[in-house]
Amino acid sequence: MLCRRAYMSRSRLVERTPEEGSRKWLVAELDRLTSLIVRRRDKRCVTCGSTQGLQCSHFYSRRYLSVRFDLRNCNAMCVRCNRRHNKDRRPYERYMRKTYGAALLAELGRPEWF
Known about the structure:
Blueprint: E1 5-8, E2 13-16, H1 23-42, E3 54-58, H2 65-68, E4 74-78, H3 79-84, H4 90-100, H5 102-108
Antiparallel strand pairs: 1-2, 3-4
Helix pairs in contact: 4-5
């Protein structure tokens, strides 16, 4: 199902799902489908090769909708590598340069897209 946003009420934890057809619902559904496509495409972590706990990692942040669903910006990473790449981008950057080349990194990271 879709990602849910939880919030605290006075009585208990209440889960709210975005209304079907809304922009939030659509973005959540696209996130889910993009993650599924990427994890099935890559089948293993692109930096360490692990097959356990794969997540959809974004080289450029998800907050930029122009590259959020671009499959060239999304790769499968294990939980450990995905967390580590937020502090040390070098292993992920080496993979991106080797796989896609510097031209694509420049194209994805064009300032006018942000």
